[in-house]
Write a structure and sequence with these properties.
The chain is α+β, with helices and mostly antiparallel strands. The chain has a six-stranded mixed sheet. α1 packs across α2. The chain starts with a strand and ends with a strand.
């Protein structure tokens, strides 16, 4: 097994906790959960209103991390979605989430209702990706 690589990217949102944006080992890439914050915004920056806008911003943040790794959404094999208003937001979040992936290349996914997320956001999403064989 190769030594893990820990990635922190200036183009991605400033971490809201002590973590790396991604960690990879042996071709597997684990992207830390992203929330709907803007890259470069401080702790006091406004969060987008509504689950659709929050999901789009969160997905965009994940795409930034993937691009910094030289990857794209086609490399994503699994996702976890965390919602603080599960019943209210599930369908609308799914509509936005689905729009990012080809219909025949949807990652495996788990969606979980939680009581709270950092910064009071309504959604957090993380990914597992796989680098192609050289």
């Amino acid at each position: 097994m190769s030594a893990p690589l820990f990635h922190l990217f200036g183009a991605a949102p400033t971490p809201v906790a002590p973590y790396s944006h991604a960690v990879e080992a042996d071709g597997w890439v684990f992207l830390t959960g992203q929330v709907p914050t803007e890259p470069g915004d401080g702790d006091e920056a406004a969060i987008p209103d509504g689950i659709e806008a929050q999901t789009r911003r969160t997905m965009h943040n994940l795409v930034i991390v993937l691009e910094e790794l030289g990857l794209d959404l086609g490399h994503v094999v699994a996702a976890r979605v965390f919602l603080t208003r599960f019943e209210e937001d599930y369908d609308a979040m799914n509509a936005v989430y689905r729009s990012y992936f080809a219909s025949d290349r949807l990652p495996a996914r788990t969606c979980i209702g939680v009581t709270a997320l950092a910064r009071g956001v309504r959604v957090e999403i993380d990914f597992i990706a796989r680098r192609p064989e050289p």
